[in-house]
Amino acid sequence: MTSVGVPIKILHEAEGHIITLETSI
Question: Which DSSP category does 25 fall into?
């Protein structure tokens, strides 16, 4: 993974968690 690929992967994972939280509310 490049230094740029890691933050992007974290952002995508964070978006997934946010979406699941919004749908559960």
Answer: -
Q: What is the pTM of this model?
A: 0.42
* Distance from C-alpha of 6 to C-alpha of 21, rounded to nearest angstrom: 23
Per-residue pLDDT of the chain (25 residues; tens, 9 = 90+): 577 788 888 988 888 888 887 887 7
Q: Hey, how many other C-beta atoms are within 10 angstroms of the C-beta on 19?
A: 10
Q: Write out the two tokens for 4.
A: 């740029």
Cα 3 from Cα 6, distance rounded (Å) = 6
Give yes or no for a contact between 9 and 1, defined as CB atoms under 8 angstroms apart: yes
